[in-house]
Amino acid sequence: MRERSEMSAPVVDAKPDPAAVPSRTETTAGNYFVSNYPPFGAWRTEAVAELESVLQQPPRAHVPLGLYTHIPFCRKRCHFCYFRVYTDKNADDIRAYIDAVLAELAMYVGRPALQGRKPRFLYFGGGTPSYLSPDQLGVLSEGMKRLMPWDDAEEITFEGEPGTLTDHKLRAIRAMGATRLSLGIEHFDDHILEINGRAHRSKEIFRAYSYAREIGFPQINIDLIAGMVEETEEKWREAVAKAVELGPDSVTIYQMEVPYNTTIYQRMKAEGRLAAPVADWETKRRWVDWAYREFEKVGYTVTSTTTVVKDPARVKFLYRAGLFSGADLLSVGVASFGHLSGVHYQNLHDFQPHIDAVRAGRLPVYRAMRPTTEELYTREFMLQLKLGSVSAAAFASKFGQDPRIQFAAPLATLRQWGFLVEDGDRIGLTRDGLLQVDRLLMEFFDPKYRSGRYA
Predict the structure, then answer these.
(1) 324, 325, 291: which is closest to 308 by C-alpha?
(2) 278 assigned to some structural domain
(3) What is the biggest distance separating any 2 CA atoms in the chain, rounded to whole angstroms?
(4) What global pTM score does this model have?
(5) Cα 346 versus chain centre, distance
(6) Domain that holds residue 71
């Protein structure tokens, strides 16, 4: 991410007028975390031809390229998980999937738009990428490198579930080139891990973290989730204290949400409940704010709505920076989504149809969308606002319109609510605003995208 944005999330305690801000306390079902625009629900199957069209165009050599690979296998499905994952696949299924991913990547590399391009950043997400064996990891990574060399990559992120990480596997992950290991810890309390469907336990967390430090990953990130089922104030503070004691290079803290395709929602639906059995939004924001302040006490910097970093000058998030600033993202694997030459796309949602499409020589794309220039402007502005602040001059230079004019109405609303910080060229959010940025971003949505499901 750009250095100025990385370090610019303001800590300002201006208080909004509570009577003016729309109230939302209980956690209800749905996707609230904004990760793209226009919303995924607006993407259409009939627009897949748009992707095929731009893939025939010359390569955009001046645009950074990222590569995302989805590994959909897990030991167990978490009760809050909404990603496409499978817990019932054997070694033959996994090998068939790896072969399909490599064949899919080969199809993209053969298109004119990807000719000669190399990824600047890579991300292995899931699911559980660390579910793969060292041999499977070798087949996948070596096959990918032959098709699209990684020698120019500045960042390679690999997600891991602590219970799957032996020292042998961690060495295999490091050997394939991973520069950031992102540990899906979520919590340190064994009861909370169990009741929320996590496969690992606390002993496995400390073992995996210790192994990873011994092996020498340049960066270790850990994930936490505030407001899980049966979370309490005391348990949350204990979890934060243990995370501070570990001293990871960065920590990503999410606020619990309950999308429709989760086990928790299915239980809510069966019981006729509208509110999820997790902490309300006000409590989650307060807990995350407390966590950030605890990390700041020992020298960490808040660099986005979800992240604290020990050394912002050294630890960057190029994957996030690329997503937020219009880079091309080549995405492979079931249900994965990407953005190439101005077109959003997402792959088929199910395992066998994805493999069958690739075996038939077809890109396994399910839906797509070509955003307008105005929508791309809105997308980048909203996503970069999640870093804390944006440069008005940079957006005016790139899009030909000052965001203070382009977004005069929503900015006025945020100003009225007390969440806006304006300092010369910078447009930013207070800490209170940053902690609830996803709901504030709805003010920037085109009215036609504000109803219906985000995904």
Answers:
(1) 291
(2) no
(3) 59
(4) 0.93
(5) 15
(6) 42-249+315-322
